[in-house]
Amino acid sequence: MNIPQHVAIILDGNGRWAKAKGMPRNYGHVQGAKNVERICEDAYHMGIKYLTVYAFSTENWKRSKEEVDALMSLLRNYMKTCVKTAKKNHMRVRVIGDKTGLAKDIQQAQKAVMEGKCPVEEKPELKPVMDAIKKSYPEIGKGNVGFGSAIFAVKPGDGSAREQAASCQKVLGGWANIANEYATKRYRSNLINWGMLPFLIKEGELPFQNKDYLFFPGIREAVEEKAEEIKAYRVGDGELTEFTLKLGELTEEERQIILKGCLINYNRV
Fold first, then answer.
1. What global pTM score does this model have?
2. What is the DSSP string of the chain?
3. Domains of the chain
């Protein structure tokens, strides 16, 4: 029997399948995710090296807010389980395609904060995240918390589009980069000019995974007080797991740009 090296699957019809059974559409999506787990196991045992799953189309953003929110929540939870399982079985998971929608998704929480609304009401999947944080930091809440996205790269910033890369991240709600090192001083400066934190982390196994929630308590004070190390936490399974980052050397001007939010604010008269 000839086993293909690469199999691609388009997930389609889960909502219609659930509706035909008299169940809500979200039930179909949950069952579809369970089927993917079984397919991954079977593909592994059959010797298939690559499995591509087409899970979310840009057309899906046009669906109801309730269904999109449920799909995003399912995707986050599924990815965390998927990555853990893959790691145990010496597999590698890669998210491909247009991922900007995921960054925009968390922007909804920050928009709620800026409008004086409750971010948990806007994004219910944040409730277990905030509950875990409040166990150790009960003062965290209205008026002293914000939400943004961050990316990790081993050595970002080498390329002609580095200026656009920083600005696009900011537009999509980016608040930080985490890297082992930065390829160019110019890229790092662009991050700072757009008000993003240029974190550094030691090489080695990362204390977080794709789609994890990270918490940085007292980050503003840490920047103001020129802290050498930044305390951070991975939030998951109802617990906080601590790890450490650095910001590297910052000039006083760079520090003030970050605190003001961006270079434009810093220069505003």
1. 0.66
2. -PPPSEEEEE---HHHHHHHTT--HHHHHHHHHHHHHHHHHHHHHHT--EEEEE---GGGGGS-HHHHHHHHHHHHHHHHHHHHHHHHTT------S--HHHHHHHHHHHHHHHTT--HHHHSGGGHHHHHHHHHH-TT-STTS----EEEEESS---STTHHHHHHHHHHTTEEEEEES--S-HHHHHHHHHTT-EEEE--SSS-SS-TT-EEE-TTHHHHHHTT-SSEEEEEEETTEEEEEEEB-----HHHHHHHHHSSHHHHH--
3. 1-98 (3.40.1180.10), 118-269 (3.20.19.10)
Looking at residue 206, its pLDDT comes to 92
- Can you say how many angstroms the Cα of residue 234 is from the centroid of all Cα atoms in its chain? 12
Q: Which parts of the chain register pLDDT below 50?
A: none
pLDDT at 39: 86
